């Protein structure tokens, strides 16, 4: 996967999380056309960059607990 494709995917994940529109991990992976294990890897990377992400089983969506933005390799809190 090239750099731009990966960055666009990270940005899309963050956007969907901010909208509280991810659905379950299985649904989000399907929406992004990736495996669940790849989704978990992307979430791990975003967390390492400072995103405070957790999955809310009650609402069945990922939630972002800080003002995190990632733009082409730069992350901002």
UniProtKB/TrEMBL annotation:
A GO BP annotation: regulation of DNA-templated transcription
Coiled coil stretches, renumbered: none
CDD domains, per database record: HTH_ARSR
One Pfam family named in its UniProt record: HTH_20
InterPro entries named among the record's database cross-references: ArsR-like_HTH, WH-like_DNA-bd_sf, WH_DNA-bd_sf
UniProt-recorded name of the protein: Helix-turn-helix transcriptional regulator
């Amino acid at each position: 996967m090239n750099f731009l494709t990966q960055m666009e995917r990270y940005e899309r994940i963050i956007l969907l999380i901010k909208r509280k529109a991810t659905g379950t991990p299985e649904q989000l992976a399907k929406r992004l056309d990736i495996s669940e294990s790849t989704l978990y890897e992307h979430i791990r990377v975003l967390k390492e960059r400072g995103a405070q992400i957790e999955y809310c089983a009650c609402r069945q969506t990922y939630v972002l607990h800080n003002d995190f933005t990632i733009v082409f390799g730069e992350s901002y809190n």
